[in-house]
């Protein structure tokens, strides 16, 4: 299958609503063309590299899903609605079974969120698979920028944390040695969160009227919260006990589980700040989106992030989150 047949077969069948307008141009010309809808256009890109972001033997259907999901998670953190995306692919070979599954995973998530795949680029790579996705979304002012947290805001996090990091640790271990029965059970209970994360697109949009600042926690909650605090020139108190932990982590030694919750990346949940007046509305948004939300602390004037343990003691030496160039 040649380059052009490949693009036609797997990446040119978007049925998203934006593709229905008379002047729309999608995959197949030099550029895509679309009527920009009214509102604030938000744009993001994330890159996924074989061996860095995913294992070579990952299920290509799940990889296709994840490549788009990590971008839709950034769109969600702007309280925006996805509208379109572009897919850059560099592949060592045109493996049709791999492409069929990858495109099915990608296109299925795109369809679920009415996000049109409008273009991209496909090349040969000499070493490994490279994926670069750009996503466009439609937002409304005021945007929940990282810089907009206010003193006295509640801090919230969606979902439950820690499972992607535990799954990653077990998959790495499995490359060296066989896992025990208990470890295999733990891997089975956690690996879908690593390999098929669900972006909080509905929750993000529902929260828009209530949140001041929002961020997705792809690099781990502490690190991404630190980015939000730095941008807002404020600090926070976070209560370790209130951080939502994935239930499977009961089987993990407590210190290891807390580290996975605090600093494990690959989460794709939302962390946000909002005035305490909106607690009831925020709980309603979560019910409507079918996601849990948890209050984890408050925004403070002192420019530091303080983590308190169950006894109210300050936790020292906080673990770092994910960093490509530590
Ligand atoms: N190579 C680059 N060129 C321009 N901007 C970049 C580049 N890499 C990252 N950025 C920008 O830096 C900011 C932080 O990026 P990142 O930490 O990847 O955010 P996120 O975790 O939301 O994906 C974003 O605004 C992103 O667009
Ligand atoms: C094979 C493999 N190794 C390591 C990881 C862990 N990992 C890779 S990137 C990342 C954090 C998020 O990726 P990044 O490129 O920083 O995305 P962004 O924050 O820009 O969304 C994590 C936890 C993984 N998921 N798979
Ligand atoms: Mg990024």
TrEMBL record:
Give me any GO biological process, just one: thiamine biosynthetic process
Magnesium as UniProt keyword:
yes
Entry's InterPro entries?
A: PurM-like_C_dom (IPR010918), PurM-like_C_sf (IPR036676), PurM-like_N (IPR016188), PurM-like_N_sf (IPR036921), ThiL-like (IPR006283)
What reaction(s) does this enzyme catalyze?
A: thiamine phosphate + ATP = thiamine diphosphate + ADP
Q: Which organism is it from?
A: Oligella urethralis DNF00040
Annotated Mg(2+) 5 binding lies at 219
Residue positions binding Mg(2+) 1: 46, 121
Q: What does this protein do?
A: Catalyzes the ATP-dependent phosphorylation of thiamine-monophosphate (TMP) to form thiamine-pyrophosphate (TPP), the active form of vitamin B1.
Additional facts recorded? Reaction mechanism of ThiL seems to utilize a direct, inline transfer of the gamma-phosphate of ATP to TMP rather than a phosphorylated enzyme intermediate.
Q: Give the binding site residues for Mg(2+) 2.
A: 46, 74
Q: In which pathway does it act?
A: Cofactor biosynthesis; thiamine diphosphate biosynthesis; thiamine diphosphate from thiamine phosphate: step 1/1
GO function terms (MF aspect): ATP binding; magnesium ion binding; thiamine-phosphate kinase activity
Q: Which Gene3D superfamilies match?
A: PurM-like C-terminal domain, PurM-like, N-terminal domain
Where Mg(2+) 4 binds, per the record, is at 30, 74
Binding positions (substrate): 53, 266, 322
Q: Tell me the domain of life.
A: Bacteria
- Segments forming domain PurM-like C-terminal: 152-305
**Keywords recorded for this protein, A-Z:** ATP-binding, Kinase, Magnesium, Metal-binding, Nucleotide-binding, Thiamine biosynthesis, Transferase
NCBIfam families according to UniProt: thiL
Q: Which residues form the PurM-like N-terminal domain?
A: 28-138
Binding-site positions, ATP: 120-121, 146, 218
Which sequence ranges form a coiled-coil region, renumbered to this chain? none
Q: What protein is this chain from? A: Thiamine-monophosphate kinase
Binding positions for Mg(2+) 3 per the UniProt entry: 30, 74, 216
Q: What is its EC number?
A: 2.7.4.16
CDD domains associated with the record: ThiL
């Amino acid at each position: 299958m040649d380059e052009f047949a490949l693009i036609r077969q797997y990446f040119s069948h978007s049925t998203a609503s934006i593709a229905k307008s008379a002047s729309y141009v999608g995959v197949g010309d030099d550029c895509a063309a679309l009527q920009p809808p009214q509102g604030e256009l938000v744009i993001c890109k994330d890159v996924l590299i074989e061996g860095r972001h995913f294992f070579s033997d990952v299920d290509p259907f799940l990889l296709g899903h994840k490549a788009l999901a990590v971008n839709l998670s950034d769109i969600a953190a702007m309280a925006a609605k996805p509208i379109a995306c572009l897919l850059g692919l560099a592949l060592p070979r045109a493996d049709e079974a791999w492409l069929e599954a990858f495109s099915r995973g990608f296109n299925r998530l795109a369809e679920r969120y009415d996000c049109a795949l409008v273009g991209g680029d496909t090349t040969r790579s000499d070493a490994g698979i490279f994926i670069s996705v750009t996503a466009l979304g439609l937002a409304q002012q005021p945007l929940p920028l990282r810089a907009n947290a206010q003193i006295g805001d509640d801090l919230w996090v969606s979902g439950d944390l820690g499972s992607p990091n535990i799954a990653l640790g077990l998959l790495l271990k499995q490359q060296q040695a066989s896992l025990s029965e208990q470890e295999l059970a733990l891997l089975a209970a956690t690996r879908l969160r690593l390999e098929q994360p669900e972006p909080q697109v509905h929750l993000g949009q529902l929260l828009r009227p209530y949140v001041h600042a929002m961020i997705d926690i792809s690099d781990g909650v502490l690190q991404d919260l630190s980015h939000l605090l730095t941008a807002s020139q404020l600090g926070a108190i976070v209560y370790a006990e209130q951080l939502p932990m994935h239930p499977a982590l009961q089987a993990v030694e407590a210190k290891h589980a807390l580290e996975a919750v605090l600093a494990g990346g690959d989460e794709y949940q939302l962390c946000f700040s909002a005035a305490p007046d909106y607690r009831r509305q925020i709980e309603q948004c979560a019910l409507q989106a079918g996601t849990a939300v948890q209050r984890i602390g408050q925004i403070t004037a002192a420019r530091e992030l303080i983590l308190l343990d169950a006894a109210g003691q300050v936790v020292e030496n906080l673990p770092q989150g994910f960093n490509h160039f530590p």
